[in-house]
Amino acid sequence: MLHDSYLDQTSGPIGRVVTSEESPATAHEFFFWTAETEAAQNLDIGHIVAAESEDATAVAVLDDPRRYSDLQSFLDDFYAYDGDPSLEALSERVEILVFRARVLATKHRDERKKSKRPVRTGPVFFATNAAIEFALGTEEFSGHSIPMLLHENGNEKNGSPQRTPLYVDEEYLLGPEAGHLNITGMSGLSTKTSHALFTIASTFQTVEDKKVAALMFNVKGADLLFLDKPVEVSAEDDPELAERYKRAGQRGLPPEDREMYESLGIEVRPFENLRIFAPLTFGGDPQASTVYPADIPAKKLNTRRRAWGEDSCVYPIVWDLEDVLPHAGRIFDPTDYDDKFKGFVEYLRAGQVRTMRRFHAEIDEAFAYFEESESSYWNGHHQATVAKVRNRFGVLPSKCGGLLVDGEVEYGDLPQVDGSFEDREMRVVDISQLSGVPQDLVVTKVINSVWEMAEQNRLGVDKLIIFVDELNKYAPSGSRTSSLKDTLVDIAARGRHLHLTLFGAQQFRSRVDDEVVGNAATSLYGRIGDEELTNSSYRSFSGTTREELLQLEKGRLLLRHAHYAVPIFGTFPRPMVLMGKQGTDIFGEQEQDPASSVLAVMRKLTAKPPAIIDIRSEIEGVPEEQVYEALGAVQAAHRTGNGAADPYKNFRWNLKRPARTGSSRRDASRILSGLDRMRD
Description:
It is built from 24 helices and 22 strands.
């Protein structure tokens, strides 16, 4: 044997290469009939085998199984039994099971040789881990090996199925050699989002010599709002929290999933640096001439993560008119946004009209001029155009769904949704409770701003992953263009050179712009509907592979990567974090009383939180509104970097102060925390 380490001798031969005039062995595929051994009975589509040529061993993926007999037609069998299926056969008819094997790689005896030779007639074996790792090209990876899936072969190793991690090359996932990941699959199975989270976690844990961050858009429910929460909690560590997990039906990872994580070399732990950004609830505009986002509590944001103690990682998305005007073409109806309308918008931008207050002042000035003058033009704009703009801008706050405020926004040092990133930061933009125009506006503005930061080298990290679901909506195929589509095409084409990587997901890959999917060096396919599989995008897959894609179970994907000659099936474990309804059931607002709220906040702010019995004693007789006001002042102080050394002491002191209606939360919290430090 040329490469004994590549052939599973323990399982023994599982078949024999067969050639014929119609089906000769080539450098890229061969056929073999299977043995009647117990090991051979385990053969299945997607398993990996090895066979020999003259001076090399070929490693190949199984495909297209077919069972043959010596019958020339179905009628021969029918007449042999006189059409009676109950008759016993006079002799057992010989049948064989034949697999097609598509060659992944060829290992030569002479390391200098790279040529591919057809295998010769001879025995076929299961491929070993070493053979599969060689065939995946891991020896030629120029970057870190990032685990993506786990391949399970038909042979056994140490009494269990042989498992091999399917790695991808970091430099072909994140760049600069190539870049980008694309995931296709039916909606409703959570496979696309779950695998994107798994890949990001793999990247965070594997790429240790670079600063890496991720940006994700939460478009459904609470799917991505509790990524900092573990999938299970031990009763020994926190009995009260463990009970809440149990009541919510959150059972944690089963042993087989933990074994998968161990085989892939990934630790089961949540994302530690999570930041969530969400707009105001509609009608929550502070109506101030200057709006300080640091003063806006999570309770006023349009997100499902806003329970006391769980909102310290939640930040507002608040924009003034200056932020919104560049995207007016995406907000207003195309039939309204004609050249005259566009000209007035450009006038506002050139005049640095930053706020809605200033806009209304400009409009009032224009109509005052029209009343006093006989002219129908004001600063080059016709009265009808100014009237149309006033009418359309009147509903602009409503169209922006809580994003646009009346005054000027001053963020100060507070983190912004389109600001620079920190190492291992998981940034989630929660637009799940928006729809239509405001949802599109957030995605467009944030991605365009991030692209500008990348061009100016202001990302703050070496690599940034941007996950965009429903890619066919934002970068559709065809001639229709938009600023967001142009940016996504740019990211796909040039992003890897600017440290940006696009992770795109969609139900219909065929409906995504060719320049976007064509630049993806790594592609994954989950269960796909037959109306999609008939598209020419899947013509390179065999009929058997397409049939498999029609019925893939959740957690199983087909992986295609720049280093792979043939796509390979594999599985991945369930997410290591809380997702969806369990998160809101466990960490939502519905069961929190004032004492529990205080305890939740103190757990975030101090290593030694008070006992809940002491909190209940402290707040006994205090109006609930006053408790929450005192708690909000403490939390606001910490968000702005002015928190007291002892937050619980600060809270108790705040309880004794009278209610401060109408005062600035930010100013009050700074005064209170300053007084507390003086007392210390």
